[in-house]
Amino acid sequence: MGNTFLWMKRGGAKPNIFAQEIKKLKPGRLYSLKLITADYQNLLQEKSRKATNAVTIQLDNVEVLPGPKNLFQFTFPNCYSHIVGKFNAEYPFWMNYHWRVFRAKGKTARLRVSDWQSDTAPGGRVGQELIYNFIEVQPYLVE
Fold first, then answer.
1. Any domain includes 24
2. pTM surpassing 0.90?
3. In this predicted structure, what is the pLDDT of residue 1?
4. Residues 6 or more apart from 107 whose CB is under 8 A from it?
5. Residue 1 lies in a domain
6. Under a CB-based contact definition with an 8 Å cutoff, are residues 95 and 66 in contact?
7. What are the tens digits of pLDDT across the range 73-111?
């Protein structure tokens, strides 16, 4: 995940949200968004727990393409060759990879990410600490 990340502790009253404008898009062009999430306490306590993180990713002023190749969340282990604390190839640290392919409707779009599964439900344990890293938007080339 790298050595810097955004940290959020899920509350029960409302979601934590971060947002940013995506600039210099070309209307009609395809782009991909990817980001990684993980449970911070699992990292600190060196616990290997495979779980899906409850988060919401919203993109405004775009058309998110449907289908499993264009929109998914995948739980994956750390790289087998990286050993950090107790984490190694046999005892992995689990993260979630989030992927969206979208078509820009304008020169800008807005990315909004929350630590709730929806606007009305946490979807995960209140008090859970999630970390966010490797947020990237780049042009997407069709096969």
1. yes
2. yes
3. 46
4. 23, 24, 25, 26, 27
5. no
6. no
7. 999 999 877 778 899 999 999 999 999 999 999 999 999
Alpha carbon separation from 86 to 8, 22, 92 (Å, rounded): 24, 38, 8
Give the whole-angstrom CA distance, residue 97 versus residue 137: 14
For residue 66, tell me if it sits in a domain: yes
When comparing pLDDT for 62 and 3, which is higher? Answer: 62
Q: Tell me how far apart the alpha carbons of residues 117 and 123 are, in angstroms, rounded to a whole number.
A: 5
Rounded distance, CA 39 to CA 74, Å?
14
Q: pLDDT, tens digit, for every residue of 44-54? A: 999 999 999 99
Mean of per-residue pLDDT scores for the chain: 94
Domain that holds residue 111: 6-139
